[in-house]
Every structure is written in structure tokens, then in C-alpha cells.
Specification:
418 residues; Rossmann fold; 12 strands; 2 domains
């Protein structure tokens, strides 16, 4: 069961879209329950994803979307939804919106889907004699459907945590009452203790934090990855001027300002093109343009997944910013795609993090703290000097292909069935 499914765009949809696709290629028969896009609160659409899963059995349900009314009240539009990756707190209205979000949407504003999805799941399990279910979050309210099903059937249930739940880095900005914190923690613990096993995208500190709430639970680390077949089909493109590419979400919860100042100094003596694609606010874009008058800024908006990969493969340097306070608990799927391109990568964040350790094994990738402007400049200068010749190799990158990761998923499921 997954809330995000094609034609939803963004990173959240890709994990189980690809798992479903490759489970079927490995001889399994996945059944997907999701929300009908007419009722869903999707920030972006990517209709190109639909062709990836057009042979998967999908049941779409209605939903009562509290998020649409919240969005209408605070943004004037039902489609804008909740800002991703940050909590805006500039002014009374933004603070009030954060308070509503933190205290009334527990565990989240998409829980209005649960009753519809749960009813359909019960019908499908009876009809198809299904013995394994998987719920994936965010939205973590999806796991409550799994808990309901587990109480009704003798069934194996895996709860997949793509991101942390109560420990997500932006919760501290939501003005949560003690009552709200306790309720959310209670729901999370219920899931952690009643699921047959927990899947996570990252091990280490994330699993340690979850294990404190359910010491006897079984945890399996199943990272995000990249589509090797699609990546191979897209050829690398050489752009005339030194080309920096950033894709994805960019918010005030990421340290982009020192990098911008470092690039401004280098642009005085180098022709640089800086392309950005994804969900980026107008205020951040204006800041970047104001700080980089000599850099050619090209904002592409939201691109389909394939076009985002094409943009990556036109770069001489791929840029990433780790979310503040999130380096221990999250690894973006985008980073595996960055690594698979074979293009040099500069990431701004904690060099002692798991991502920093992965980058240290690559031939031309580095994690640099946001306050180290000199090291940032030196890395960019190195990439400029090696334009057209530089490559970035990571030994064993193949293990993060979606196809190989699906084999790992099958191994996990098979062992838990024994």
C-alpha cells in the first residue's frame, strides 16, 4: 500500500514503483492499493512514470483530503499543499499554519485515505488469498492501514520507513504540544511493535533510534537506488561552458548560501552555467540570481524523471545540499542517480556522514561542510580544469540498481516467511 503512485511525480513514488515493476519481472505478482489521483494531494505529476507500471495490478480508491482544505486556507490554492523539507515560520499566519500542521494532522494530513484503502485491502486479500502486505511511508498514516489488516488476517506485514517518523528533522519547528508528541510517538511505537519486520532506506543511527522503541523488532536496510537501464540509455552531453547541475528540492533547510558566494568569486574568471530543476521557491532563485550576476542561471522548473537524468548527464559537476540535521537519518535516492551518471559530485554537508563515507570511495565526489568556502572553491576549480575529461567512478555501484535491490527485497521477504 502506497499513497504515492504514478502519475504522482517526485522522489517518493519511485521506490515502490520500481520494486513493483521488477518484482513482476522476477516472477512475483504485486497488487498495489493507492489513492486515485482525482482525490490525491500530489504536489507534482510525472505522467512518464505511468508506462513503467502499466502492467501492474493497481486498485485506486477515494480519499478525504484534509490537506487540500489546509492548503486552500493558508495558500489560497488546494494544489500547493504543505511545503516539503521545511516549515515556514515568517509571520503569524505561517506560524499558525505550522501549529495546525503539528497538532491536528497526526500522524499526517493524508490519513483521510486510510478507511478507503483499508476496505479495499480487505476485499483484495480475501479475493486473491494474499499472504504478504507492505505499507510504505511517508505518509506514515499508511502504516495504520497495515496495523488494521494485521489485526484481521494471519498475514506477514512489512512496514517500510522511507524517512524517519517522529524523528524527522522539521518536526522541531511545528510548535507541537506534549499531547501531540505523545500521540504521534504512541502511533509510531504501535507500528514498530506490531509489524512483522521493518524496512528502512538507511541503517546506522536511523535503525538505532527506531530500535529503542521496539528492541525485539527485525530491521532490514533496503536503500534507494537508480534505474540502470534508463541511465544507460541516456548519453552524456558536453556543454560548451562549465556546467553545474542541481536537481530536486531546495529549501532554507539546506546550506546553499556559502556555495553561492564561493561560485560568485570563481565566476569572475570562468564562464559558468548553473542549471537547476525541481521544486525551488522564487525567493531562493532570486537570491541565487542576485548573488551570481556573471553566471548563466537556467531554472528548468519541475522535469520528468527522464528529463532530469538528461540534465544531470549534461553537467560537468553535480551539486547537492544535505538537509540540516538530516545527515544521520536520510540518504536521498537522487544521490545514487548522481553517482550512477559517472559525473563529478559536490555535496554540501557533514563529511563524516554515511553519504560522506560513500563519496569518499568514489574517484571524483566529495562532501564538504557548508562553512568551508575555500575547499568548495578548490573542488570546483579542479572540476573546471578537468572539464570534458573528468569521470567519477564508484566501485560496486551496480548493487544499487533497482533491479539488484529488488533481488534483495525478495531475499528479505523469503527469509521472513520461513
Amino acid at each position: 500500500m502506497t499513497y504515492y503512485w504514478p502519475p504522482s511525480g517526485g522522489s517518493g513514488v519511485q521506490r515502490w514503483m520500481y520494486f513493483a515493476k521488477y518484482l513482476k519481472k522476477h516472477g512475483w505478482m504485486p497488487f498495489v492499493i493507492t489513492v486515485d489521483e482525482k482525490y490525491a494531494s500530489y504536489r507534482v505529476l510525472d505522467k512518464s512514470f505511468v508506462t513503467e507500471v502499466n502492467d501492474i495490478h493497481v486498485t485506486k480508491t477515494k480519499s478525504r483530503e484534509l490537506l487540500k482544505w489546509y492548503s486552500l486556507l493558508f495558500t489560497g490554492s488546494k494544489k500547493r499543499g504543505i511545503p516539503q523539507g521545511e516549515v515556514k515560520k515568517n509571520g503569524f499566519l505561517s506560524k499558525f499554519a505550522a501549529f495546525i500542521r503539528g497538532n491536528f494532522f497526526i500522524p499526517d494530513a493524508r490519513k483521510g485515505w486510510n478507511a478507503f484503502a483499508g476496505d479495499e485491502a480487505i476485499k483484495l486479500i480475501k479475493k486473491e488469498n494474499i499472504k504478504i502486505i507492505i505499507t510504505t511511508g511517508p505518509p506514515h498514516s499508511t502504516h495504520l492501514i497495515g496495523s488494521r489488516i494485521k489485526s484481521l488476517f494471519d498475514i506477514k506485514w512489512f512496514a517500510d520507513f522511507r524517512d524517519p517518523w517522529t524523528a524527522i528533522f522539521y518536526n522541531k519547528d511545528l510548535y507541537r504540544s506534549n499531547w501531540a508528541k505523545k500521540k504521534d510517538t504512541r502511533l509510531e511505537k504501535k507500528i514498530l511493535c506490531t509489524a512483522d519486520a521493518i524496512l528502512t532506506t538507511k541503517g546506522g543511527s536511523l535503525v538505532q533510534k527506531l530500535r529503542t522503541k521496539s528492541p525485539n523488532q527485525t530491521f532490514h536496510v533496503l536503500p534507494n537506488g537508480y534505474d540502470a537501464k534508463l541511465m544507460e540509455s541516456i548519453k552524456r552531453i558536453n556543454v560548451q561552458h562549465f556546467h553545474i547541475v542541481y536537481t530536486g528540492l531546495l529549501t532554507e533547510n539546506q546550506d546553499y548560501r556559502i556555495f553561492t558566494k564561493a561560485l560568485a568569486e570563481l565566476s569572475k574568471n570562468n564562464r559558468i552555467c548553473f542549471s537547476l530543476a525541481g521544486q525551488i521557491s522564487e525567493s531562493i532563485l532570486n537570491y541565487i540570481k542576485d548573488e551570481l550576476p556573471k553566471v548563466e542561471i537556467d531554472y528548468k522548473g519541475y522535469l520528468s524523471h527522464e528529463n532530469a537524468l538528461r540534465l544531470m548527464k549534461s553537467g560537468d559537476l553535480l551539486l547537492n545540499f544535505i538537509f540540516k540535521s538530516a545527515h544521520e537519518d536520510m540518504i536521498s535516492g537522487k544521490l545514487f542517480e548522481y553517482l550512477a551518471t559517472g559525473i563529478p559530485i559536490l555535496s554540501i554537508g557533514n563529511s563524516n556522514s554515511d553519504v560522506g563515507n560513500i563519496f569518499s570511495e568514489a574517484s571524483f565526489a566529495k562532501m564538504i561542510p557548508s562553512n568551508d568556502k575555500k575547499s568548495i572553491q578548490n573542488f570546483i576549480i579542479k572540476a573546471i580544469k578537468e572539464k570534458g575529461k573528468a569521470g567519477n567512478k564508484l566501485p560496486g555501484i551496480e548493487k544499487w540498481s533497482r533491479y539488484e535491490l529488488t533481488k534483495d527485497l525478495i531475499d528479505i521477504i523469503s527469509k521472513e516467511q520461513l
